[in-house]
Amino acid sequence: MIKMPLDQILAKIKEHSGIADAELNAKIDAKMEELSGLISKEGAAHIIANELSVKLFDAVTGKLQIENILEGMRDVEVLGKVLNISAISTFQRKDGAPGKVANVFIADETGSIRIVLWGDHADLTTTFKEQDILKLKSGYVRENNGKIEIHLNDKSVVVVNPEGETIGEVKATQQSSPASRKSISALVETDDHVELMGTVVQVFEPRFFEVDPTTGRRSRPDGEGIFRDATGNQITPDFSCVMNAVLDDGTETIRVVFFREQAQQLVGKSKEEMMQYKDAPDQFEAVKTDLLGHIVKLTGKVKKNEMFERLEFVTNEVDTKPDPKAELARLETEKAAEPVVAAPAVEKVEEPEMTIVNAPIGGVAVEEVVVEAPTVEKVEEPVVEKEAAEKPASEKNGSLPSIEDL
């Protein structure tokens, strides 16, 4: 099911019906109350749009601009310019075969979006260059951490720099630009697209929860125990998972959150393999042990955990095998860019003069070094008149004073 964000639904209803904000919101609230809370606000807005004969979705045919791509779309065709390419991550499928995934950001004149390439398509990223134009066909759109992305599988088609295709000035977002590397101790709550690199020092078991099989969004049963989609239709839920781990980069530690694909990438397991831990969590102990001590590179955003009053890191890209040569080159580049601080000038101190003389020692002439000390002006001590004072009795007797004497 294609899912349109609530703000876009409301904008289309107002545009085509001329209804005011207050009246529209009242209609949506009344519809939610009429259906006893069995639908979401988005579902109620869909119903209102239908009652007002407002067509929310135009026929999806041909090439789409990025701003018109919606969650749930299938067989999407899009053209975009390459802005950023990630490394290829590998994992093992349930049948033992190796799996691969890579990410690339593309943009057109209307916006930018992440492209997720699975299987053999991931290898194509090694041939991509920034500013290349990609034509993508037969992709499907999913939501991930609040943002939509296009996934490519074996049925998808990728054409690099197609003949006759051009793109004007692109509209990029912060998410499509390379993430900035930060240390954990330097993270702040507003960091939205940063990169961390550190060692996994603690791993927690995955937790599983129900999701809408079409949109991948969290789904909860109603009062009758029935799961429904955003429009109120009954569904059979799928399951997703979330994992937590603790990362240490030498400056500090932070709890890291891995959702869905990110959790699979971290542990190197397929979705089917992850599901086996839902009913047999004890089998995850071996995975936890294997992950400890691994160095990983993560891209994501910082989020404040209000309950525990701490910062946490939510990942959207996981690299379990960062390239040592690339990281070393990066460190050398950063070191070369550091400003050179000149040492403070030290005032020269004149050394004392030395005179060499011959001095006989035991009948043998030996060269002796005589250091002439600097002349020190003699200072007359003031004359202090001493007054006679009677010694204490204990001193007269030649013994130490007692506590009573003091």
Description:
The protein has helices at 6-17, 21-34, 41-51, 260-267, 271-279, 285-291, 324-337, 393-396, and strands at residues 63-64, 76-85, 89-92, 98-107, 112-118, 133-144, 147-152, 157-160, 180-181, 194-203, 207-211, 238-248, 253-259, 295-305, 310-319, 354-361, 364-371. It has 406 residues and is an alpha+beta fold. Helix 1 runs parallel beside helix 3 and helix 2 crosses helix 3. The protein has 3 domains: 1-57, no CATH class; 59-178, OB fold (Dihydrolipoamide Acetyltransferase, E2P) (Beta Barrel), CATH 2.40.50; 180-323, Nucleic acid-binding proteins (OB fold (Dihydrolipoamide Acetyltransferase, E2P), Beta Barrel). Residues 354-371 and 384-406 have low confidence and may be disordered. Strand 14 and strand 15 form a beta hairpin. The protein is globular and about 60 Å long. Strands 2-4-5-7-6 form a 5-stranded mixed barrel. A 5-stranded mixed β-barrel has the order 10-12-13-15-14.
Which stretches of 5+ consecutive residues score pLDDT under 50?
354-371, 384-406
- Class of the largest domain in CATH? Mainly Beta
CATH topology of the largest domain: OB fold (Dihydrolipoamide Acetyltransferase, E2P)
Report the biggest beta sheet as strand number plus sense, adding barrel if it closes. Answer: 5 strands, mixed, barrel
Per the principal axes of the C-alpha atoms, what is the gross shape? globular
Number of domain modules: 3
CATH architecture assignment of the largest domain: Beta Barrel
CATH homologous superfamily title of the largest domain: Nucleic acid-binding proteins
- Strand share of the residues? 25-35%
- Range of helix content: 10-25%
